[in-house]
Specification:
2 copies of one chain form a homodimer. In chain A, about 35% of the residues lie in helices and about 20% in strands. Chain A is built from 11 helices and 12 strands. Chains A, B: Belongs to the class IV-like SAM-binding methyltransferase superfamily. RNA methyltransferase TrmH family.
């Protein structure tokens, strides 16, 4: 279905705008993503938006046409609107010419196959949506299977996380689980759990990594709880030459993830 | 000097609050930093705030006493105020119990000694203050000398950058320069310029890094201009196993920086 929206007070505008807030995303089980590149990554990964919102000021592009066709074929809705209204929906002064509304994915542990990839990233109580999106992006780069979010993390479907993922929200698998659920699932099969840690750790370079390797980083300000580290198969540490005793969580995951990639 | 501020409309409150905006920071050549740990890093690195703002709700702490004494010894000002007013100044709902106003540093190339460290990080047109602060933090961790900001970057003295640096704004040297100034300075002595690049690049692992090694990353969305890459001594690339063709800028700097650290 196609339609045009020209008024700011249209209830669909109000609804789309509400998806910027977690409470409304949870109710609707939908989230927003913007930009032709990101939506094309989604389409090519088999994720077609339920609603596609296009700016009347857009330029024609074959990838845009492909998206519109995919949405209509899936009986989704294509909405045309003004750049001003699109800016109101996305909350950006200079919005991209296109946004999509997607159904939230199933993020249960049962949806992943551990042997599908040699590396998985795991984050515990990660609070910053930018860090979360960056971890997804890094996961894509190192050929990880996905990101497992343990305990109370930032919402992976927030606009900030989706943006920072640069499309990896659609290409990486995403899991949300409690720590005990995750450990119980992990110990039900093969898998090495590796913590970036300062306690009782070996140097991260040349450590005996083994696939499937689950790379675990902790909360931005607290790090990992001691009991979680103790449950790991391997604790590794990166050199810290200066005054600080930790790295940014997404940076730690990336430095460690690339080391695992090189050694497997 | 010591004084107490109890009113929101006090002109000092207005002034301190204005330092959250770049325009006012530039006029005043001062910036804000918060938190006992960060301000202690500053003090131990020889940077004492010109003004120290303390919450009346603070707990006593020997490091706090040391800070107060250092500020008063340097003829600075110690201001006590309510948690509400401190929240207004820092723009955080739950502010730390302490904030400091620092004089901006001299960020000219002449202030650094290239042989003081084996690694220097260089960012070109880096727009995100969080990425900038994270690069400073990573620089501290890998024993870099500092961060050289080339072309039009985010303001390193913004509250976001200072926060993300976790204190490294005080321990790393900071330089701001135009590209031609930087290259001309670099070529006036020893120094290897290494770009994280996709063009004409060798694998980043095992590349022939040499100290002092200047690790260069480009703008978040554009990457490095081709001419800048061509001016580098070495172009290296990280594996990209997925759909994306780039990493977050701060992540790229960290993965490459740790590799350089391991190989020097």
């Amino acid at each position: 279905m196609r339609r045009e929206i020209t008024g700011f007070s249209n209830p669909t505008v109000k609804y789309l705008r509400s998806l910027r807030e977690k409470k409304h995303r949870k109710q609707a089980r939908q989230f927003l993503a913007e930009g032709l590149r990101l939506l094309t990554d989604a389409r090519e990964s088999g994720r077609v938006p339920e609603t596609l919102v296009l700016s009347t000021a857009r330029d024609a592009h074959p990838l845009l046409t492909a998206l519109e066709e995919a949405v209509l074929a899936a009986r989704g809705e294509v909405i045309e609107t003004t750049p001003d209204i699109l800016a109101k929906i996305t909350g950006k002064d200079n919005p991209q010419a296109i946004a999509g509304v997607f159904a939230e994915f199933d993020t249960s542990l049962e949806t992943i196959e551990r042997d599908a990839a040699p590396i998985w990233l795991v984050a515990q109580a990660l609070r910053d949506p930018g860090n979360l999106g960056t971890m997804l992006r890094t996961g894509d780069a190192i050929g990880a299977g996905g990101l497992i979010l343990v305990d109370d993390c930032a919402d992976p479907f927030s606009v900030e996380a989706v943006r920072a993922s640069m499309g990896a929200i659609f290409t990486q698998r995403l899991v949300q689980a409690r720590w005990d659920e995750f450990v119980s699932w992990l110990r039900g099969g093969s898998g090495q759990l590796v913590a970036a840690s300062l306690r009782n750790a070996v140097p991260y370079r040349g450590a005996p990594y083994a696939a499937p390797c689950f790379v675990l980083v902790g909360n931005e300000s607290q790090g990992l709880p001691e009991a979680y580290e103790a449950a790991c198969d391997l604790r590794v540490t990166m050199p810290m030459k200066g005054r600080a005793d930790s790295l940014n969580a997404a940076v730690a995951a990336a430095v460690l993830g690339y080391e695992v990639l090189a050694s497997l």
